[in-house]
């Protein structure tokens, strides 16, 4: 390597010398004398020498062509930075607002989902519950009919009480079936039929619904605007069922009818 370096240095020296001799050819001054050169000529000689060295180095592949300077990045003014910061702030505010909207929608969705799951659970429980079989006993059927009345399903209740009454069974609840059948017609505002049903209750002299039926007779006549017949029914209740819990109500109605 050292040997190659010295050979290269020698060739470079020779090349520079040849370049200097060539540039000074044709002049009368001694090419090796500095006194023969004027100040201007010295500058030119220096430039030529430098140029010659660069040419030789370029020919030898040592000096690359001068790279083009990279364009400088445009400077950003303070005003541009302010506008950019405002835009960034605006976008951040929009993102925050959207995040809040998404959070609200998610909360509403969770609430609806929980409600839907509850309803599905309730429905599943209803479906899985064992169906209530129709009670075979008179009391069981009576309680079902009474449940229909309490649910204000008056027509269904009337049909259920009719089945019990037509069964011919000698049961202590038969008179109650007759009474509640009258109440069902009363609930349907069919007061004429209700009167007929309540009067049938007295066919059971040991019934615990006699005073109830007597009170309802007076109320049915009041609904039909028959004040005189209503007064007679209330007086009968006070006279024949003096121990009834409904005597006070009957007296109250009588006071209004005076």
At the first level of CATH, the class of the domain at 136-200 is Mainly Alpha
Shape: rod-shaped
> Which spans have pLDDT < 50 for at least 5 consecutive residues?
26-39, 41-46, 129-134
Helix-strand makeup class: mainly alpha
CATH fold assignment of the domain at 136-200: Serine Threonine Protein Phosphatase 5, Tetratricopeptide repeat
**Helix content class:** over 70%
Distance between the termini: 146 Å
Count of individual helical segments: 10
User: What is the chain-wise order of helices and strands?
Assistant: HHHHHHHHHH
What is the number of beta strands? Answer: 0
CATH architecture of the domain at 136-200: Alpha Horseshoe
For the biggest sheet, the summary is: none
Average pLDDT taken over every residue: 80
Supply Rg: 61 Å
Search tags:
mainly alpha, 258 residues, 10 helices
How are the elements arranged and paired?
Layout: H1 2-24, H2 39-59, H3 78-128, H4 138-150, H5 154-166, H6 174-187, H7 191-200, H8 210-223, H9 227-240, H10 247-257
What would you say this structure looks like, in words?
The protein has helices at 2-24, 39-59, 78-128, 138-150, 154-166, 174-187, 191-200, 210-223, 227-240, 247-257. The chain has 258 residues and is mainly alpha-helical. Helix 1 (2-24) packs across helix 2, helix 5 (154-166) runs antiparallel to helix 6 and helix 6 (174-187) packs antiparallel against helix 7.
Q: Quick summary of this structure?
A:
This protein is mostly helical and 258 residues long. The protein has helices at 2-24, 39-59, 78-128, 138-150, 154-166, 174-187, 191-200, 210-223, 227-240, 247-257.
